[in-house]
Amino acid sequence: MRQHPDLNLSRRELLLSGAATMACGSLELAQAQPAALGGPTMAKVNLKVNGREHSLELDTRTTLLDALREHLHLNGTKKGCDQGQCGACTVIVNGRRINSCLTLAVMQQGARVTTIEGLGTPQALHPMQAAFVRHDGYQCGYCTPGQICSAVAVLDEIRAGVPSHASADLTAPAQVTAAELRERMSGNICRCGAYSNIVDAITEVAGKPA
Amino acid sequence: MRAFTFEKARTPAEAAAAAARTSGAKFVAGGTNLLDLMKLEIETPTHLIDVNGLALDAIEATPDGGLRIGALVRNTDLAADSRVRRDYGVLSRALLAGASGQLRNMATTAGNLLQRTRCPYFYDTHQPCNRRLPGSGCSALGGYSRQHGVVGVSDACIATHPSDMAVAMRVLDATVETTQPGGAARRIPIADFYRLPGSTPHLETVLAPGELITAVTLPRPLGGRQLYRKVRDRASYAFALVSVAAVVQRDGSGRIALGGVAPMPWRVEAAESALPRGAQPTVAQLLAGARTTAESAYKLPLVERTLAAVLEQARS
User: Fold this and answer.
1) Residues 35-94 of A with CB under 8 A from B
2) List of chain A residues whose C-beta atoms are within 8 Å of the C-beta of residue B26
3) Which of A91, A180, B77, B171 would bridge B245 by S-S if both were Cys, CB 3.0 to 4.6 A apart?
4) pLDDT score of A13 more than 50
5) Considering the entire predicted model, what is its pTM?
């Protein structure tokens, strides 16, 4: 069997040659736009995140979640399942909670986005954050930013009169009950099982005058 | 996810024309199902046409006393609309029984109708699936089929349609309005909108390539007790094993449609004359010719019992 000359390369030489190949690869990709060989298409996206304007140049495939985490480095919003089943990626877009993993950044052109970083700071917690701390509404904390964004929006939805599957009377004003909160929060999974404390935290915030 | 180019359409006619002109194009609205399928490369559009900018997000009264629901009305807004809550309770209930609050905030009326099946073999690209890859075979026949269809199914596919909303739309006799690529409008009764799988399960609706749903209209309200009862593996945020949408009048007459049992919302109008006599004779006609697997056979008695519970509730 003939020995390939590359096998005589030192580890250092091998790493250098790999880096050169990668650099060439990205140059070719940049020139191939848009999508001539199924390569990436870039798009300009403007987002107003937590009150700050951002202008990004993104691959059209970038989800809002990845734009927030990988491009704006707002790592508070979590990637759990990346398919809309767990709710860890919940953020508030134009006043409504959504799964940021199931929308493209390019579809959110000009949107106002609120993430956990925009609700409060360690020095000045949002009332919902403070209530989660007080009621121990988490254990590992991974789902918590999504839970809190969702909870803030749930109380807005109840105030706006949006009914739920748990509402006995569709035409009566929505109530803040444990059954209502559990139903409305069902899109946020907590594998540590902090659900009852989460319900307590939300109930406390709901009980305070707005 | 495969790379794609992206455009924002400004009018329905422009969107439909762009879709017909561009091979590999797909419309995207809420994106909650399409994006999920694109990540798994089950859907591989090379061009996305974002229709969210089209002004199709109003709910308006129609001259004949019904409602015209814009294609882009979000599921949350449709469920919360005061006219829907008052006059079309079964629709509000069905919407609220589906998905999660976050998803309902994104999902649109048209997109909900066009959801693809949640059959695990459709989702698993390592397995044969005639719906995903025509001619490759059906893994559910002989596989895990507890969630699958028992009526309207074929040798090629036993998948179910996952929508709750569509079941209510079927019982209410909604009409789907579209714009075709040439710009002409079309009205499709929901009874004619879905196709049975037969030997071509990948063809799910009668929409032509590039045809865009612009609205769904409801006829004038039916009155009666309007109920939607969904049986699922957990109390919230799960697809139906069986669901029943019902509009029952004081004299016991009414209409029913089923979810979770067929490749489309399942309604057999001829069976409804049996409703005053109860669940058993109704279901005997509704599920005539049912074809179950050992794992899905439980759905037949479950449909009957769920309908019995609904009729009991309607009388109360």
Assistant:
1) 35, 38-41, 43, 59-61, 63, 82-84, 87, 90
2) none
3) B171
4) no
5) 0.92
Could you tell me how far CA A59 lies from the centroid of its own chain?
Answer: 18
Q: CA of A121 to nearest chain B CA: how many angstroms apart?
A: 24
pLDDT at A20 over 60: no
Contact indicator for B241, B229 with CB cutoff of 8 Å: no
What's the gap in Å between the CA of B13 and the closest CA on chain A? 20
Flag if B31 and A182 touch (Cβ within 8 Å). Answer: no
Q: Is the pLDDT of residue A119 over 60?
A: yes
Where does the pLDDT of residue A39 fall: very low under 50, low under 70, confident under 90, or very high at 90 and above?
A: confident
* Predicted ipTM of the assembly: 0.97
Contact (CB, 8 A) for B30 and B114: no
Average pLDDT over residues A130-157: 98
Question: How many angstroms separate the CA atoms of B10 and B54, rounded?
Answer: 6
CA atoms within 13 A on the CB side of A157: 27
Contact of A170 with B88, CB cutoff 8 Å: no
Those residues of chain B that have pLDDT short of 50 are none
Model pLDDT, residue A27: 35
Asked if A99 reaches chain B (Cβ–Cβ under 8 Å), the answer is yes
Q: Where are the alpha helices (DSSP H) in chain A?
A: 11-31, 64-66, 116-119, 127-135, 144-159, 178-184, 195-207
**Sign of the dihedral defined by the CA atoms of residues A104, A110, A112, A114, in that order:** positive
CB B30 within 8 A of CB A98: no
φ, ψ of residue B99 to 5 degrees: the values are 55, -150
Q: Give dist(CA A145, CA A69) in Å, integer.
A: 13
Within 10 A of B173 (CB to CB), how many other CB atoms are there? 18
Confidence (pLDDT) at A11: 43
